[in-house]
Known about the structure:
The complex is a heterodimer.
Chain A: E1 2-7, H1 11-15, E2 19-23, E3 28-30, H2 31-41, H3 44-49, E4 63-66, E5 69-71, E6 80-82, E7 86-90
Parallel strand pairs in A: 1-7
Antiparallel strand pairs in A: 1-2, 3-6, 4-5, 4-7
Chain B: E1 7-13, E2 18-24, H1 26-32, H2 35-46, E3 60-64, E4 78-83, E5 90-95, H3 99-105, E6 110-114, E7 121-126, E8 129-134, H4 143-154, E9 159-162, H5 165-168, E10 176-178, E11 181-183, H6 188-194, E12 197-203, H7 213-226, H8 230-238, H9 242-250, H10 269-273, E13 276-280, E14 290-293, H11 302-309, H12 317-330, H13 334-350, H14 355-358, H15 368-380, H16 384-388, H17 395-398, E15 408-409, E16 412-413, H18 424-432, H19 446-449, H20 453-460, H21 474-491, H22 509-520, H23 526-546, H24 558-562, H25 577-591, H26 601-611
Parallel strand pairs in B: 1-6, 7-12
Antiparallel strand pairs in B: 1-2, 3-4, 3-6, 4-5, 7-8, 9-12, 10-11, 13-14, 15-16
Helix pairs in contact in B: 1-2, 2-21, 2-23, 7-22, 11-12, 11-13, 12-15, 18-21, 21-23, 21-25
Amino acid sequence: MRVTVRLGEPLWRAVGQRRVEIEAPGERCTLPELVQRLEAAYPQLRAELSAGAAGDGVDYHFTFFLRDRMVKPADMAAEHVADGEEVMIVLPMAGG
Amino acid sequence: MAYRTDSPYALIDLSTGEIRYDRTPEHIVRKFFSGRGLNMYYLYKYLKPGTDPFDPENPLIFGTGLLTGTPSPSPSRMNVTFKSPESGILGDGNIGGHFGARLRAAGFDRLIFLGRAEKPVFVLAEDGKLSIHDASFLVGLNTQEKQEALRERLGTDIQVATIGQSGEKLVRFASVRTGLKASARCGGGAVMGSKNLLAVVARGKQRPGFDNKDFVRVGMDHKQYLYTSKVIRVLGTVGTAFLYDTSNHLGAIRTHNSLLNFFDDTLNAEEIEAQTEKMVSCFGCSVHCRHKNKQGGEGPEYSTTVLIGANLGISGADRIVTLNNICNDLGLDTSSTGSILAWAFELYERGIIDKEITGGLELRFGDFELVKQLLYMIDRREGFGNILAESTHAWRYFGKESLDYLIAIKGLPQSDPHDVRYIKSFALGIAVASRGADHLRNRPTLEILELPQEVTTRIYGAETNPDMTAYDTKEYVVKFSEDIFAVGDALGICRFVTQGFNSPHMIDYERFAELIKLNSGWEYDPDQLREVAANIVNLERMINLREGISRADDTLPKRYFDDPMPGRLTKGHRIDREEFAKMLTRYYRLRGWSDEGIPPKQVVDELNALVQPEVPLEVEEPVPAAVG
C-alpha cells in the first residue's frame, strides 16, 4: 500500500518537502504503524513528532486529518489508513 | 532594590493646551496593574455615558503595561482605549512594536487626551515632559509618510503613533499605527482624528527594570523556556500564516461573508512565505512572528489573509500582500475592512443594494481591482467609500434587512477569521467579548487541540468537555482565557506567549507573578491575579452597561444561528439558539453576574468607590444566583 502524508509546520522543514509517499505491506495499516514507517523513512521527524520530555509517542499538540475527520494522537491506535489515502499532520494553532 | 510602584501619567486637554502631570497611586495600580487595566479605570472615570465618540469629551488613552519595556518576555504591548465610533461601547486596541517601550523610556506609563485641538497637532513626550506642536505639515499624509516626516523633522531616535488620512476623515475603523504595527480595532484612529491629534511622538532613554540583574536573568530564562515550544519556533519561521492551511482544510474560515467556510490553496503558508523577505520582531521579543514582506510592508497576519482574502474571494498571496500593505499605509483595520466589504458584496448580490447607492460600481466577490479602488475611496470618504467608511453604521443607508447579513456583534465587525459555528466556545467568546466581535479578548484556542483531560483540568480548574463542538462546560474555557488575557494585557505581554492562546505551555500565572515581583516587589499568587482579571472584566462590563448594553447584545450574527456550514469537515454545524442561551447564562453565573449579565451590587459599589467616576453605574439587583 502507498499513502500520501502531507506535512504541516514545522514537520515539512525537517524533510524539505510538504508531501511524502509512505509504503507499507498489505492494504491498510494503523496510524501508529504509519507514523513508525514515516519516522523510519525520515528519522529527523522523530524529534519533531515526539512528545519529548512530556512522554513517549506523538506530541499531543499535533492533529491528524484522515478522510473527513480529525484524529488526536491519543486516539490514533484505533484508526486505519488504506492504500491511496492521504493523511495530513498539522499543529492546529489558531493565532491572531 | 528600589521599585517604582505608582504609575506616572499625564492628562492633556487638547482644547486648552493644559497639561497635568500626575501618578496613579500604588493601591490603584495593584488592583488593575496598568495597560488595559488602568486604561479601563480611566475610561470609566472620565467617560460620561452617552457621549458621542467624536465628541471632544471622549477620552483617548494611551497606556503601557506594567511590564512594557522591561526585561520580561515579549513586553512590547500597550493599549489605546476610548469610546468606539464603530460600536458605541468601549473601544480598545492593543499594539506592539516599539512605541510602548519608548513612551515608558520618555517617562510616561500613560497619556490621557481630552478635548479637541483647534488645529492639527502632534504631541511630543520626552524626559518626563510633554509639548504640543503644530502638525499642519502632516495633514493628508498616510501613516508611513507621517512617520517619515516626523523623523525628518525630529530625528531618528523617536517612535511615533499616528493615523492616516482615514483617521483625519473619521473613517470609523481607522487604526492607530506605529512603525508597521497597528492598534487596529474599534476606530481609535478616528478618535485621534476627531481630536485633531495626528501623532504622538516619544523619545527617551529610560530602561525600566534593566538595572535589576535578577529581572534581566529571569526574563532571559523565560525567553529560553518559550523557545522550547514548537509553536513559538513555527511562529518565528512563518508567522501566523501557517494557521490558514489547517483551518481551511477543516472548513472553518470565513469565506464570502460566511456564505462559504473554505477557500482555495493560493493563500497557504507556503504562498505567503514566498512573499516574505524576513521575519521581524517587536521590542524585546524573541519570537519574530511578523513578516517583512517583499512589497515593503509587514504582514499579512492570518486574520488579514482570511478577511481580505477568502472573505472577499481574492486569490493569490501577492494580491493579499498588496491589499494588506494598502490598508496599513492608509491606517484601516483589516478586520473591519474585510468584514464590511464582504457584507456590501453580499448585499449587492442579493439586490438589497444596487448601483444607485454604489455610485455605479458593480460589487462582486473576487475582484481585486475593485477592492483596491474601494480602499482608497474609503480613505478619502469618496462616493460609496463614504458609506463604507461608516462601518456597521452603514446599515442606515442599506436598510434594516441588511443587518441579517452583517457579521458583527455590538456594532463591531468580527475579527476572528474562524467561522465560529463549529467551535462553540469561540462563539460564546465573541458574543461576550467586551469590545464586540473580537477573538483576542477570550478565544480559548486550546479547544482546537482537544488536549488530554488531565491537562485541561489543570489549566481550567474544572473538568471540561474536550469535544470542541459541544456546548457544555465551555463557559469555563472562555472565562479562563478572558481572565489570563486581561492580566496579560494589563502587564503588556504579547498574547502569543500567554498561556492558552496558542499552547498550554506559555507564560502562565506563576510566571506572571515572578515577573511582577521582580518589577514591583509585589507578591501575587494565581488567585490574586485572577482577582485583578475580575476587576478588569467587571469594570469593562460596567462601562458597557452604562452605555446601555444588555444580555440581548451578547449574541451572534443571525447567519450563525440559521445557516449550517456548507462544506468540508465542519459541514452542517451551526449554533443552536437554545443551547447558546443556556451557555451564556452559565457563563454569566460563573462570572458571578446575574442572568441578565449584571455584576453584583457589591462588586459595582466597590469598583465605583475605587474609581470614583463622574457618572457611576448604579445597579439594584441583589447578589445573583450561585454558580450552577
